[in-house]
């Protein structure tokens, strides 16, 4: 998959995965949200989607967009807990950022989680650290596809663990 540079290129990439303007998966999205909330809770972490996260999930849930030329390397836009240890790491990231975070997708290559905060900013929790992708969907997906990610520490309001 080429690097995405424009809104139109992002839309075309998502359209290839089944997205269309006005898409709303409603009840299916609600079920996916309830399942991931319960899964996080089973690991002692309470999460709740913000309005921007709910809107994103309703519009994009269950899409699988190929990240590069290998179809097994995809972005899956579904709330999910990939690894049980991620729940605590994501909770700590939310505290450091001073916001609620909610998983809105993951990548199938590393099992890294896409997270959205209350303002619509998107972060990427990767085994190498946490990254800020952008203030909204388009910029964030362009960053994801180009690998141009900023360290999430630049967005911290307080040090982790404080």
Computed structural class: alpha+beta
Radius of gyration: 15 Å
Order of helices and strands: HHHEEHEEEEHE
The shape, in one word, is globular
Strand order of the largest sheet: 1-2-3-4-5-6-7
Uncertain runs with pLDDT below 50, 5 residues or more?
none
Distance between the termini: 40 Å
How many individual β-strands? 7
Can you give the mean pLDDT? 93
Residues in helix, %:
25-40%
Number of helices: 5
Strand count, sense and barrel status of the largest sheet are: 7 strands, antiparallel
Work out the count of structural domains.
1
Strand content: 15-25%
Model description:
The structure is a single chain. With 162 residues, the chain is α+β, with helices and mostly antiparallel strands. The chain has one domain. The chain is 38% helix and 20% strand. A seven-stranded antiparallel β-sheet has the order 1-2-3-4-5-6-7. Strand 4 and strand 5 form a beta hairpin. The longest helix is centred in the N-terminal third of the chain and has 17 residues, at 26-42. The mean pLDDT is 93.
List the helices and strands and how they pair.
Blueprint (H helix, E strand, L loop, with lengths): L6 H10 L9 H17 L8 H10 L2 E4 L7 E4 L6 H14 L3 E7 L5 E5 L4 E5 L2 E6 L2 H10 L3 E2 L11
Antiparallel strand pairs: 1-2, 2-3, 3-4, 4-5, 5-6, 6-7
Helix pairs in contact: 2-3
Brief synopsis:
By secondary structure, the protein is of the alpha+beta class. It is built from five helices and seven strands; from the N terminus they run αααββαββββαβ.
